[in-house]
Amino acid sequence: MNSVQKNANIKKPKPEFLILGGGIIGFAVAKELRKTEKEITVIDLDKTRVETLRQEGFNALIGDISDPELYNTIDMRNLICVAALSSNDDANTKAIANFKAVLPESVKIISRASDTLKKGEMMAAGSGYVFVPPQIVSKTITEYLDLIETKHIGNRLVKWLDEHRGITLGIVLHDNPDPDAISSAYALTEITKKFGIKADILYDGKVGHHENKAFINLLAIPMIKIPGPEIFSQYDKLALVDNSIPSVNNSVPADHPIGIIIDHHSYSGIEPSADFADVRTNVGASATILTKYLQQMDITVSKELATALLFGIRTDTNDFRRNTTSADFAAASFLHPLSDHDLLTQVETPSMSVETLDILSEAIRSREVYGTTILSNVGTIRNRDTLPQAADYLLAMEGISTVVVFGILDDSIYVSARNDDIRVNLGEVMRQAFGENAGGHPTAAGAKIPLGLFASAKDKHVLQKLVEESIMKRFLSAMGIEDSENDGL
User: Which of 38, 194, 298, 360 pairs with 477 at a CA distance of 20 to 30 A?
Assistant: First the structure.
């Protein structure tokens, strides 16, 4: 007896939502949908389940959800969605194919699968979306564990700050700081005020990127340029924000004790050491971590601070396109209504400097292409922030998935790299190529390499050639690319 015969004496229901499978998940979904006062029909082969559903007030029919004639048991004129939610993957797949053949495109089909293999089969059969319960449960548990970890770490930070009330704190940024580092330090100064701690933001190098300068000026963020290592003795404790290793891309002596470390970068083979350390490589920005602290400590977030943190997250995740996690989206969602969006527009649209245009031009002219990889030596630079801009620009070229742009500033070689090939972990490649001088994420990384003996070279042309050969050889070797692959473009 088919489904039509089993329900011959029952008036055809006219559901908006048709649920195929009245087990634990199907029943639970039906109960939630009923709260919206939608018309729901549930179909299941088990007579006991159907009777239970009817006692609960649902329209329920006895039927085999894989039966190709099943659609004849209902009036489909009001149908919005069909949900194949039984625990039988094969039955769900057949039901999807059967309904896909008779339903208009406006009616959506969703389903449940036990694993990713069955999910693929259901998508091929016509399901618009497939839920995999084990993945949903594991993600929910993981997110809850993350909340527990965040609260635990936040409580440790509160304990440290409470034990150090009244001290002076120097918050040290990495050299040539970016909006993520600056906004994170700004947030930490606001947190420390709650504990009577006077904090200063310290930096070395230059704030060169035109957006970064506009960012600092428009938000009036107070920062102190480091005149020399003697400044660190003026503070009771130091904090490293958006960097975590003394003397690595910062001016802090290697043996100087650190009170606080907050960072989202990984450093292969080097363990950050501090009284309190929070290094989370599973988020896209340090500003995300600081936003969580502010929320947990219930600290009022001013419009200026919210704007700074939101801009910091957006820039470090390349507008949520790079190394972005649910934590970054959640932080941005919290900050968005608190921010000054007119101010954000001013920060994001300053005029491009002549130097930036010159470096972009040189990066294009000097590019060497190895398959899908570009390396470009832009020579001597005055502002290292022009390198990532050039790298981002070259990455947009057709057929290119990895870009390395490098140049010389003072007595160091600066390297900026970008990548959108999911098979390549750019941070690991850079560390393999340049050791502890390099680091970053799978899609964005950088390096600062001392020139050493080469710094005294009088012939700048020879110096540039030596640097180019060394950087290219090391990077190509780490990528497993032979020089012979150069296509001469």
Answer: 360
Q: Pairing state of beta strands 444-450 and 438-440?
A: antiparallel
Measured CA angle at 244 (ends 241, 245), to 5 deg: 140
Phi/psi zone of residue 319: left (φ > 0), alpha (ψ -120 to 50 degrees), beta? left
Looking at residue 181, its amino acid is A
Mean pLDDT of the chain: 89
Please enumerate in sequence order all residues whose Cβ is within 8 A of that of 105, keeping only pairs 6 or more positions apart, or say none: none
- Single out the residue of 178, 334, 195, 330 nearest to residue 260, CA to CA: 195
State how far the Cα of 308 lies from the Cα of 312, in Å rounded to an integer.
6
Average pLDDT rounded to a whole number, residues 147-166: 95
- What pLDDT does residue 18 have? 97
- How far the first Cα of the chain sits from its last, in Å, is 70
Q: Which two tokens stand for residue 289?
A: 């971590």
Tens digit of each residue's pLDDT (9 = 90 or more) over 464-483: 888 999 999 999 999 998 76
Strand partners, 278: 262
What pLDDT shows up at residue 64?
A: 96
The SS3 call for residue 457 is: coil
Please, are residues 17 and 35 in contact by the beta-carbon 8 Å criterion?
no
Tokens (6 digits) for 383: 């502002």
Pair of tokens at residue 418: 């970008």
Q: Are strands 237-241 and 168-172 parallel, antiparallel or unpaired?
A: parallel
CA–centroid distance for 149 within its chain: 18
Report pLDDT for 268: 65
| For the chain, counts of helices (H) and of strands (E) | 16, 18
Above 90 in pLDDT, residue 143?
Answer: no
Judge whether 93 and 121 are in contact, CB under 8 Å.
yes
Q: Is the pLDDT of residue 282 over 90?
A: no
- Residue with structure tokens 């009244």? 166
Classify residue 353 by its DSSP letter.
P
Dig out the tokens for 277 from the structure.
Answer: 């350390």
Asked if residues 84 and 109 have their Cβ atoms less than 8 Å apart, the reply is: yes
The residue written with tokens 């039966």 in the block is 67
CA angle 255, 444, 358 (to 5 degrees): 100
- Given a contact cutoff of 8 angstroms between Cβ atoms, the answer to whether 241 and 218 are in contact is no
